[in-house]
From TrEMBL:
Annotated Peptidase M56 domain residues: 9-263
One Pfam family it belongs to: Peptidase_M56
CDD domains membership: M56_BlaR1_MecR1_like
Keyword set includes Protein transport: no
Phylogenetic lineage: Bacteria, Pseudomonadati, Myxococcota, Myxococcia, Myxococcales
Parts of the chain that traverse the membrane: 6-27, 39-59, 91-111, 273-292
InterPro entries given in the database record: Beta-lactam_resp_regulator, Peptidase_M56
Domain of life according to the entry: Bacteria
Record's keyword terms, sorted: Membrane, Transmembrane, Transmembrane helix
Name by which UniProt lists this protein: Energy transducer TonB
Length: 419
């Protein structure tokens, strides 16, 4: 895939993920109140669903194979022609900047994670299968993506009584069995890829809040008579000063008051939970379909036979509505865009060629504009595959005639450029 293609995919996934995040942020409170914290947490599945949907092949019909295209427009004598286009590749510089940002963000997360691991000191395996650290801040916690483990503070047996220790272990165990550590690693990966999107970083905080509330609800479902003890264990837990990027632990940026309030609320019934699952499934499928259907249908160039070129032209005459046409051609094959208007016959004859000078990747579009068989302009434009260019022409303002103008936005995509 070309640099321009990567950037376009990045833009499309950014828009899709942002829309999904906004939808979840709006609905999470309603879902939690109506169906419980577990359903609100499950609603975040809309974000990866939207991302995957955007990466699927777009819908729609493919381009026509006819080499000729006609249009009719008002016309007047042309006095000059201008062309705009670039054979440079600014997309490569933008792609390099994005890559630098993604790597820098990943290194920042890695440094934080390494710092937290080093702060734990020596980890001692306990008889109950958990590990005991030489510190207390941010613990207990479930950490590790490839080798998940539960780590408790050095004063675990002193600070908590037996029932509280059972509840805390159950809480961290729920993180492990539900795969929350892998979900958190996915969030970190997305924050690295979309490091330039502040909305995603903001949403990560609320994702972790819903994760903890969901885990609390699961613990209470297994220990319904231990609400008070569970709340006391929360109050005893020392809040972490900084979060683990890849861990699940108590006190991570979620309001303690919100968790205590939830302890007083009855657990949702099975029917409410099931209704919530249906709502989340419908939300995910609808959002994913919307993201898939909204993407432009330009991936067809990846399926063209060798040597063919996909041409997308957007023509605008004066202030009229632009007309978009897509078709397939071969290098050197003549294209004719003709029509008649205002008593004159107009024809735009063009060919596409590969390479210019020492730049073999450039696609050239040579055109000849005729009125009543007489050549009035011969503009040409060069561009890289998949990058748009424009030819602008207009009447001479000093000739005293109407200031008619035409803009032709054209994109040439070589076969296989979308792969």
């Amino acid at each position: 895939m070309s640099a321009a293609g990567v950037l376009r995919t990045l833009l499309e996934t950014t828009l899709a993920s942002s829309a999904a995040v906004l939808a979840v942020m709006v609905l999470r409170g309603v879902l939690r109140a109506g169906f419980g914290a577990r359903i609100a947490y499950a609603a975040w599945s809309l974000v990866p669903a939207a991302l995957v949907a955007v990466l699927l092949p777009a819908a729609g019909e493919g381009p026509t194979s006819a080499p000729a295209l006609a249009f009719v427009a008002e016309a007047s004598p042309w006095a000059f022609a201008s062309e705009e286009g670039s054979t440079t590749n600014p997309a490569a510089w933008l792609l390099a900047g994005w890559l630098v940002g993604a790597v820098a963000t990943g290194l920042w997360f890695a440094a934080r994670q390494r710092g937290f691991w080093r702060a734990l000191g020596h980890l001692r395996l306990r008889d109950d299968g958990m590990y005991q650290a030489e510190t207390v801040a941010g613990l207990p916690a479930a950490v590790g993506v490839w080798r998940p483990r539960i780590i408790v503070p050095m004063d675990f047996d002193v600070r908590y009584d037996e029932e509280e220790r059972v509840l805390l272990r159950e809480h961290e165990h729920q993180h492990l069995v539900r795969g929350d550590l892998r979900f958190n690693a996915t969030v970190v990966l997305l924050r690295c890829l979309f490091w330039f999107n502040p909305l995603l970083h903001y949403a990560a905080r609320h994702f972790r809040q819903d994760q903890e509330l969901s885990c609390d609800q699961r613990v209470l479902a297994r220990h319904p008579a231990s609400r008070r003890t569970y709340g006391e264990a929360m109050l005893k837990t020392q809040l972490a000063t900084q979060p683990w990027p890849l861990g699940c632990h108590w006190g991570f940026c979620h309001p303690l008051k919100e968790r205590i309030i939830m302890l007083k609320q009855p657990l949702p019934s099975f029917s409410r939970w099931l209704s919530g699952c249906v709502c989340v499934l419908a939300l995910t499928l609808t959002g994913g379909y919307a993201a898939w259907a909204a993407q432009p249908n330009d991936a067809v160039a990846a399926h063209l036979s060798a040597g063919r070129i996909l041409v997308t032209a957007v023509l605008r005459i004066n202030d009229d509505e632009p007309t978009t046409t897509t078709f397939v051609t071969m290098p050197g094959q003549s294209l004719v865009i003709d029509g008649s208007a205002n008593g004159h016959d107009w024809a735009i004859e063009g060919t596409v060629a590969r390479g210019v000078g020492n730049q073999p990747d450039v696609l050239m579009f040579h055109s000849t504009i005729k009125r009543d068989g007489k050549v009035v302009a011969t503009p040409r434009i060069g561009m890289l595959s998949g990058q748009p260019g424009m030819i602008r022409m207009g009447a001479d303002p000093h000739a005293g005639g109407e200031n008619d103008r035409i803009e032709l936005h054209i994109t040439l995509t070589a076969a296989g450029a979308g792969t």
